[in-house]
Amino acid sequence: MARTSVANTHLDHRRVAPEGRFRRPRLYVVGEAPGAEEAAQGRPFVGPAGRALREMLDEAGIDPKQVRLANAIPFRPIAYSKDRKPRNRSPTIPEVDHYGKAVLNDIRRSKPSVIVALGSTASRLFGESQSISVTRRTKRHFNGHVLRITFHPAYVRRFGGRNSDVWHRAVADLRRAWQDSAAHLDPSRA
Fold first, then answer.
1. What does the domain layout of the chain look like in residue ranges?
2. Lowest mean pLDDT among 111-115, 151-155, 179-183
3. DSSP result, 93-157
4. Could you tell me the pLDDT band of residue 183, with boundaries at 50, 70 and 90?
5. How many CB atoms lie under 10 A from the CB of residue 182?
6. pLDDT of residue 82
């Protein structure tokens, strides 16, 4: 992938707001940023990575009606190639710091049982900077919420796809987060 300069990086300002159960979701799942399909539809996780995430949630036995989906930033970060075609890019740390406040406010208002950060950009929003391989192994906390970290579904798709080792690890992480949320609802299960 070619490196892009700041001069040819932008945001698509079509906002993609959080979606799903607002009051006390069992899981609040945070990804990186919207892609082209998400920006076009105004909904999180509707593109290829979103379809993979929904399959993983299903495989983990998670009720989608108990989940809220969001991104670390609500806008698609884009860079332009030499031929001026827009491409997805990772959000910058300043973008996450600035725009991430909206998702953190939504988390405070919705009061989820467990937060799940998908990938390094989302984990940075919660103050984590270690690799996903390290952070996914432990239950963490953020502002009184249990925090679980796992691989972003785009990473899973790129490095193995369905039925790969990384897919199974991500599903296991989601299942652990779901079990943590049950313990949060019923403290005797902790």
1. 6-185
2. 179-183
3. HHHHHHHHHHHHHHHHHH--SEEEEEHHHHHHHTT--S-HHHHTTS-EEETTEEEEEE--HHHHH
4. confident
5. 13
6. 86
> What does the alpha-carbon distance between residue 120 and residue 30 come to, in Å, rounded to a whole number?
11
Say whether domain 6-185 belongs to CATH 3.40.470.10. Answer: yes
Collapsed DSSP state (helix, strand, coil) of residue 26: coil
Alpha carbons 46 and 71: distance in angstroms, whole number: 12
Sort 163 into a burial class: Cβ within 10 Å, 0-12 / 13-18 / 19+: exposed
Provide the β-strand partners of residue 20: 68
DSSP labels for 143-160?
Answer: TTEEEEEE--HHHHHHTT
Cβ contacts of 71 within 8 Å, gap of 6 or more: 16, 30, 31, 32, 33, 34, 38, 44, 103, 122
The CA-to-CA distance between both ends of the chain, in Å, stands at 45
**The two structure tokens encoding residue 110:** 């919705």
Are the beta carbons of 180 and 139 closer than 8 angstroms?
A: yes
Q: Answer yes or no: pTM beyond 0.85.
A: yes
